[in-house]
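G., before I forget:
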Amino acid sequence: MTVKQTDGVKIVTIGGGSSYTPELMEGLINRYDQVPVREIWLVDIEEGKEKLEIVGEMARRMWNASGHDVQVHLTLDRREALKDADFVTTQFRVGLLAARIKDERIPLSYGMAGQETNGAGGIFKALRTIPVILDIVEDMKELCPDAWLVNFTNPSGMVTEAVMKYGHWDKVAGLCNVPVIAMMSEPEAIGKTPEDLTYRFAGLNHFHWHRVWDETGREVTRDLIEAFDRLGRTPGTPANIFDVPFYREQLDLMDMIPCGYHRYYYRQQEMLEHMLEEAQSQAGTRAEQVKQTEDELFELYKDPNLDHKPEQLARRGGAHYSDAACETIASLYADKNTHIVLTTRNNGAIPDLPEDVAVEVSTLVGKDGPKVIPFGALPAGERGLLQVMKAMEQCVEEAAVTGNVGALLEAFTLNPLITAGETARQVMNELLVAHERYLPQFAPVIEQLKQDGVTVKDERVRRLMEEGQ
Amino acid sequence: MTVKQTDGVKIVTIGGGSSYTPELMEGLINRYDQVPVREIWLVDIEEGKEKLEIVGEMARRMWNASGHDVQVHLTLDRREALKDADFVTTQFRVGLLAARIKDERIPLSYGMAGQETNGAGGIFKALRTIPVILDIVEDMKELCPDAWLVNFTNPSGMVTEAVMKYGHWDKVAGLCNVPVIAMMSEPEAIGKTPEDLTYRFAGLNHFHWHRVWDETGREVTRDLIEAFDRLGRTPGTPANIFDVPFYREQLDLMDMIPCGYHRYYYRQQEMLEHMLEEAQSQAGTRAEQVKQTEDELFELYKDPNLDHKPEQLARRGGAHYSDAACETIASLYADKNTHIVLTTRNNGAIPDLPEDVAVEVSTLVGKDGPKVIPFGALPAGERGLLQVMKAMEQCVEEAAVTGNVGALLEAFTLNPLITAGETARQVMNELLVAHERYLPQFAPVIEQLKQDGVTVKDERVRRLMEEGQ
Amino acid sequence: MTVKQTDGVKIVTIGGGSSYTPELMEGLINRYDQVPVREIWLVDIEEGKEKLEIVGEMARRMWNASGHDVQVHLTLDRREALKDADFVTTQFRVGLLAARIKDERIPLSYGMAGQETNGAGGIFKALRTIPVILDIVEDMKELCPDAWLVNFTNPSGMVTEAVMKYGHWDKVAGLCNVPVIAMMSEPEAIGKTPEDLTYRFAGLNHFHWHRVWDETGREVTRDLIEAFDRLGRTPGTPANIFDVPFYREQLDLMDMIPCGYHRYYYRQQEMLEHMLEEAQSQAGTRAEQVKQTEDELFELYKDPNLDHKPEQLARRGGAHYSDAACETIASLYADKNTHIVLTTRNNGAIPDLPEDVAVEVSTLVGKDGPKVIPFGALPAGERGLLQVMKAMEQCVEEAAVTGNVGALLEAFTLNPLITAGETARQVMNELLVAHERYLPQFAPVIEQLKQDGVTVKDERVRRLMEEGQ
Amino acid sequence: MTVKQTDGVKIVTIGGGSSYTPELMEGLINRYDQVPVREIWLVDIEEGKEKLEIVGEMARRMWNASGHDVQVHLTLDRREALKDADFVTTQFRVGLLAARIKDERIPLSYGMAGQETNGAGGIFKALRTIPVILDIVEDMKELCPDAWLVNFTNPSGMVTEAVMKYGHWDKVAGLCNVPVIAMMSEPEAIGKTPEDLTYRFAGLNHFHWHRVWDETGREVTRDLIEAFDRLGRTPGTPANIFDVPFYREQLDLMDMIPCGYHRYYYRQQEMLEHMLEEAQSQAGTRAEQVKQTEDELFELYKDPNLDHKPEQLARRGGAHYSDAACETIASLYADKNTHIVLTTRNNGAIPDLPEDVAVEVSTLVGKDGPKVIPFGALPAGERGLLQVMKAMEQCVEEAAVTGNVGALLEAFTLNPLITAGETARQVMNELLVAHERYLPQFAPVIEQLKQDGVTVKDERVRRLMEEGQ
């Protein structure tokens, strides 16, 4: 980091109208002594203008209440915002929550896993997001070539890898709150505090494992596994994931703790059954539940007297996300050498993957960027899972950049949550058609599908499409 | 190979009572000028004694008819046979066809793929076979330390890798007829003969891809893909595999031809549907069909006038298997440098896998053993599939050697044909109980399962078990 | 290649005033039916203006004589030339031949190998060249983002790798005439013609090995080794390399033919002795001999009647260089799928090196660029040599980009031709001071060295420096 | 470890007549509460019988003084000793100190580095030792298949790798005192104690680097580098290594501390000059100095009143060697999970080398053997050095097993301390002839050399040979 320290830091947030923004503001306010922010630019698109104004006003009130002299700019002009930025954070959702509903409902309507970052849904979220982030990177090359890109747009792993591989942009860190939640929630199970324990993570975004040591250097991974077994639940699993237990024999063999999302793979059957139940319930899929929470949050943000992050935000599911982002910014800026779990270049941290791919691992973050903490070779089983997921991610990224249907079929074949064959192909076709507006790279393919009469089976999705979403 | 060439070659066949033996004899008779066989020992176990005698007499008649002075010994004493052997071939089936029926029917009874070398069935075949082959290797270390082991017992890849990794025995070559069938059946589709084309294979047993060049050095892989598309079928696919087409977009991207068994992965849904149909049909599962053919073959072999391989054997499914074995023996012995597709040590042929694992690749076989022909890096999608399968194989091998349930659950999780969760666990448990006799390494686990009341659901399998099989 | 084929091809040659240019022109004229050239821009710098005009006029005469309507532009304005180029070739020499004389004489004055592309001299040639090529690439990103860069500026391997790694430019092919010379000169030794044999190369620039097969597919590498042994010389070794024989026992073990330059490593002692003798002789070092030849060539080029490449050019040492370049251009443009040995991305061709480094290997060149032909794992000894050279190259590239003395010392330590210690450090210091003008990245270091009183010991080099070279 | 804990531990020491044995005894006496030794077998060969008796009596006195009831057996019958051993330690020197004198003097007589474990000397020590250790392993397979082999015979890395690779024996740990010396001597330089700091090592035997952290987890590698710079010496360097400083710029770039022996590579010139001086001095080469010390030690050991390790042993150069061995035995036996730096299987600890090669790294040693602590990717320069040294080791091991001169020439070419060419070949030839008695695998080659008139130039070595050594 060679920020010109004289005149304060300029931070730009793409997707600034997100309900997460107040958390981000709080994180920056709390670290103002480490990162002297001069100006914040919240950027959004036309459709998000109203939300941007609500959350932007909220942000201004928060900074005013903090007593720091920081300008909060709201804009729909991304290029204006990026000019001379020191940090760019990305938290946008291409297609908004309506797109997430499609990602969930279309696979589920065929009895397949429908989920935001796993299975067919995660693949399509990447297809929509990667072209946009690559555009942002092109702007950054021109307008703020020394800035760091702190990405917490999901699927964070694929998006970050695409930035490095196709955008040729190295100053990027991908963030996720799943490791933070584990590190904060697990220690209690063995009578410890987060400060007592040392964590080491390795894997991919939403697909990592960790090992843990206590303050004397003794490994306590096995103690945690046993404690979770006794408790009958896994405290570190994010609230939004159904907590079916892992098989103890597998945990004993791997001698690591899988992340919450790993249930989709180690207990595929039960997770699918749960998703199908949820979709048919009153509450609806996760996207539909989140939409409800968001609407409530924006009602709160409208309150002209509210000048601090409301408690309800924590329930949103993305708790600690922005906190991790702010800590990353502070560590980069103030050379703190903090342990942060990030998606970054492998560099041998996981010897089972090439050095130049993106992995989510424990790093020490300082002014020269994150330095990976080596994790070592994985057990055979986990190595295989990791390698097939990385290959799947690369096929998705290729499809996102080229619009090649073969690459997309490859990703569908590789993805453990998808059963390759005609039903999967139908799911793929419906998702292509449903997301047409955000998949210009697939335009000729989608045109052909529509001519072939492909239509979406799920009613709620059809309704969204009729509404122009 | 440092065979003492003065006094002829001694060949030992473990599982000598197999219906394949006449093909093996034919192959050796045809290559007698290259490999001067002195004596052949056909070894089998008590249960196979009757078949051994039938097929042994048949073998003697074949050699007599050939005019060569070769002694054919029949024995149940493996150690007596192995003494000073030059070549040991293995073609045994632990648990006979009854075990295969269990491998197929138990998974299918829960709607999962039931197949001899893929899915849960293939995993259990490996669990039964690996301890036996390792015993054979221990005997070989003592009794014939210079011999080559030519394995065509399935699952050939895992069995061969276990010999190298756990048996520390390097002089082993794993064989399969799938590449041979492809090389003999495909060329016609583009108006060529097998002699015109050069093939290069890489992958794992029943999980490889190939590329093809014509006599001018021009690559014709794409021509073959197009020809198959026009034909509406894949000529190189073994007769026993349902010929659902691969998706053309995937073939175009990978620019290779997958093997017939790859359908289980690229078209998982359709292959499963086909297996379920077949199991419910009159003909029954593959094992049940094969049993019928075998009975017919042994009836033929009893004919004291039959002194050559009968035509019907070709229909058995394993056509060319023994031929490939004999060509391997001849190439090792006579330093022929023939192109043979074998399971052998990777040695960089596929840079996406470590050098010391077993792969099935094109090799040149001469007196120093097979030398791999480098294939180069695979496309991302195929690399991922290959890596997850290799990891699965390694988990299976570990489970076979240690009896560790965690390793077995890992293999179930990794296997693309198995949906991880309680149903899969039930399938695993039933297979453990059904194969109890051949899984001594899992004895305590199986004991516990029986105490917990695990019983087999499929009626035909239950009946086999009641019959003591 | 997506050249707009309507209006002909634009080719730009950086270092257009080189004595090689007529060969390049000849190659393009001979392939005009494959590559319809519209205009050629020969670019040089102020110091090269006179030569540019001489050779430019010569080029024009050659094209006129060919009867094709091609415009030859001469310019000192690189950016004007690059605009909308289809192919950019680079053949410049930063610091001209005077720099090469320094690269040779300074190490030799301390009894160390002094050579253009090996040892300390090769390192410094890279330090001077890499910043310039990276500047060119930045211009290309802006002015001709679809063009291919065909580099034959030495050290071709490091320069090409720097373009890929630091320039983030993938459409680059590095060229060298050493493989071409081998393929043209060796076959005769076993009574064959170049057309009869198939060659496969792998390694790094000036550091590769090859294997050879005859028209029946039989490997003849060993036949060639034996023939060279009988002949007492290696026909494929470039004329400028002292032909001390390799040790037969090493060749027999590696079963490959090393390139001519490999003598500097396998017979380090004798090569050094020869270089020291040569430097003390009348003819002087290679650079001094080349300078003489070049002066003679330019005298010839001045002849207004000369309109074809003169015979004398072949003796220049770089024979076939431009021919390989033209064939590469033709293969890229006309999708010829020709076998060309190029420096390109490894992609698993040599599994002993990471996939993303630059290697010099056999490729098939078509419209999508070069596709590597897998070579397979090297024997242990050659693998080690290759890996340490690749590491050395990477340290040099890092030093070239950052001006870090530690990285330069690392390169000196790794280089097998340099004995690490104080004498090597003195050589390094003198080279830094002697090349000051072309090493702006080391400006502060050089400033300090001069203050510390570092001066060049070799008299001829001191004289060149006094003349302002 | 599945030692039958009822009846105490049996330890066998091959090379039991070594002057180190008292240190080994002391280490076992100090750890008797952790490792209940029942009997110790000191094994030696006929030539070592006298020393064996002297040191054996000394050992008995030490155990008597300790008050523990442990039998010390002295024998020349290795097989008798190995029967049912729990631990086998190896500390023998094939050819005794006379062989070491040859290893040092022959290269030095041609101006090349002559050293026990580096350069040509280290190569020949491996050639003599590997066949012997492989014989021991064959005995162990038969007589004590569950025992651990704790090797501290040099060159420890190659000897240990040969045991794993050619002996197919996994229960082996290679030991060296260099890391121990560093961990005990360095901390003081920054005002710390060994207990305060955490060390992590990675590399090969006598060729590793380390990083260090303080009690708060802060990395202090750079602090140590600076402290050594201020001190003008490196406290962790073994007493027998000339302490020329590393170049600070290289240390700053690599951000690691090289081991003492690394000076032979980073400061090759000065180390060679020092060795040449030493050889011409009164004291003579290291071997000659060591011989003097040993003679003095055996005089002490003869004292029937001496029943504890004498102080003078510490000066012998191998201080802490046996201590590390005893700690390894205790950790294996008592499952202590101690941090010990060992030569063991890489398993991804250093991702720049294959998983199955031997490396010297930080491990945690418990009942299941050593588990490597991942170190992560090395900087480019150190990666290259490491890879070329590993390749050299593998060529040496191959030569030791096969007697192939090509492999030996490859090792000479790869070794950075040897300049390939005729002088090196002469050094190789003289070493072959001088060590004839211990190199049966090279018998035909040596016979030819003698017929060709190869004789040793160095007078002292010639004298040793005339004496029959």
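Residues 400-466 of chain B form one domain. The two ends of chain B are 41 Å apart (CA to CA).

More on Monday.
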